Amino acid sequence: MKTVPVAFHPLARLLHWLMAVLILAMLFVGVSMISDLSPRHTWLLSLHKAIGLALLLLVLVRIVLRLTVPHPPLPADLPTVQRLAAGASHLLLYGLMLAMPLIGWGMLSAGGYPLPLHLPALLPHDLQLYAVLRQAHGWLAYVLFATVLVHLGAALVHGLVRRDGVLRSMSPAPLRNRQANDQD
Questions:
Q1: What Gene Ontology cellular component terms go with this record (predicted)?
Q2: Which of 30, 39, 57, 155 is most deeply packed, by most CB within 10 A?
Q3: In whole angstroms, what is the distance from residue 115 CA to residue 85 CA?
C-alpha cells in the first residue's frame, strides 16, 4: 500500500508562494525600471538584480524538491488534454523561472555591467550578444506574465469551478496531514 499525498510538501508550498510574490514584484520592477530614467532607475536596477538572483537560487531548490518529494496527482477525472496542458504549462513555468535570471545574468555579462555579489561573468563582453539577450529577456518576460495569468486562471477553475482539491493542495495555509491510500 502506497500513500499518495493530498497536498504539496510545506516547503514546496512556501517556495511556490514566495516565488509567486517575487515574480510579480520582478515583473512590475522590470516595467518600472524600463520606463523610469529618474534617479530611482539605479535603485530599481539593483532591486531587479537582487530579486533575480534570489529567484534563481529558489527555483534551483524548487526543482530539486519537485524531483525528489512526492506531490499530489491531478484529479483522475481531468481530461487528457487538460493533463497535458497542465504538464506543459508547468514545464514552461519552470523553464522560464530558470531561464529569466540566467539570461539576465548573461545579458549583464555581455553588456559589461557590474554583477551582484561580484558574480563571475557568464558570457564575454559582446554588445551584439547583449542586445539579443536584452530583447530575449524582455520578450520572455511577456511570456512569463502570460503564463502566470494562465496558471492563475487554471488554479481558480480548479478552486472555484471544479472544486477538486488542486488549489487547496498548494494552499499556503497548513493542511491536515491527510493521506489518500493508493493500492499498488
A1: plasma membrane
A2: 30
A3: 37
Q: What is the pLDDT of residue 176?
A: 58
Give strand pairing partners of 180: 4
Q: Is the residue at 182 inside a domain?
A: no
Q: Is 50 exceeded by the pLDDT of residue 158?
A: yes
DSSP 79-109: -HHHHHHHHHHHHHHHHHHHHHHHHHHHHHH
**DSSP bridge pairs for 182:** 2
pTM assigned to the model? 0.89
Cell of 181: 491510500
CATH of the domain at 128: 1.20.950
Question: What would the grid cell of residue 127 be?
Answer: 554588445
Cα→Cα distances 66→13, 32, 102, 181, Å: 11, 32, 20, 21
Grouping H, G, I as helix, E, B as strand and the rest as coil, residue 141 is helix
**Residue 175 banded pLDDT, cuts 50, 70, 90:** low
At which residue does the C-alpha cell 524538491 appear? Answer: 65
State the cell numbers at 48.
531587479
Tell me which of 38 and 45 has the higher pLDDT. Answer: 45
Q: Is 180 within a domain?
A: no
Domain holding 167, by residue range, is: 9-73+82-172
> What are 102's three cell numbers?
540566467
